[in-house]
TrEMBL record:
GO (cellular component) term, any one: ATP-binding cassette (ABC) transporter complex
PROSITE patterns: ABC_TM1 (PS50928)
GO molecular function, one term: transmembrane transporter activity
Signal peptide extent: none
Pfam family, one: BPD_transp_1
GO biological process: amino acid transport
Chain segments annotated as transmembrane: 20-43, 55-78, 183-204
Name this protein carries in UniProt: Amino acid ABC transporter permease
Length: 216
């Protein structure tokens, strides 16, 4: 183990550049997958004719495919139909599709967990279906969604490492390159990578607990 050489200024800067790419891809994917998941999950909850069953099939299909396969598809298969994406955008599209399907199920389950009696009471008091959904169902469902949503976001951040297979210059890719300089760098570099992942994921967990406490 050679901590001094492994943590040279150039190596640390290079690893942090990869970490920045990881955070960038994760942040964009989290935002997009949350939006997609909320829309799809809400539509499935409302049981819209035709649209809801089709979305249900797509969600189940995506959820039961390996993320790695979806990453390969967006990077290498889409160009065959005229959609050529670079490594970063391929990773974002793949993560958004996969995590969006997961979040859609979280949203649908959270909305379904609300007591039907409250919905009936709201409708009988004169609220429309949309008003009931917005003012009664969604606020309560959100409280129950926070823990699984944060867990899914943490999984998404860790899943960005799979994009190393399409040469995305993210944290694991840069760590692999540094380790390639000398096998004595393996343990120091992997320890640094573990610390970086842990710091962000633990911060997300703490933020989720605080948000959950405020919502209760």
């Amino acid at each position: 183990m050679d901590f001094i050489q492994a943590f040279s200024l150039d190596n640390v800067r290079f690893i942090l550049e990869g970490f920045y790419m990881t955070l960038k891809v994760a942040f964009i994917s989290i935002v997009l997958s949350f939006v997609v998941g909320c829309i799809v999950g809400t539509i499935r909850y409302t049981k819209m004719p035709v649209i809801s069953p089709i979305l249900g099939i797509l969600v189940e299909l995506i959820r039961n495919l390996p993320l790695l396969l979806i990453i390969f598809f967006t990077r290498f298969a889409l160009p065959d139909i005229g959609l050529k994406l670079d490594a970063m955008n391929s990773a974002i599209v793949a993560l958004t599709l996969f995590e969006g399907a997961m979040i859609a199920e979280i949203v649908r389950s959270g909305l379904n967990s609300i007591d039907k009696g409250q919905i009936e009471a709201a409708r009988s008091s004169g609220l429309s279906y949309v008003q009931t959904l917005w003012h009664i169902v969604l606020p309560q469902g959100l409280r129950r969604m926070v823990p699984p949503l944060v867990s899914q976001f943490i999984s998404l951040l860790k899943d960005t490492s799979l994009a190393v297979v399409i040469a995305l210059p993210e944290l694991m890719n840069h760590a692999k390159i540094v380790i390639g300089q000398s096998f004595s760098y393996t343990i120091p570099v992997l320890l640094l990578v573990a610390i970086l992942y842990f710091a962000v994921n633990y911060a997300l967990s703490l933020a989720a607990r605080r948000l959950e406490t405020r919502l209760v």
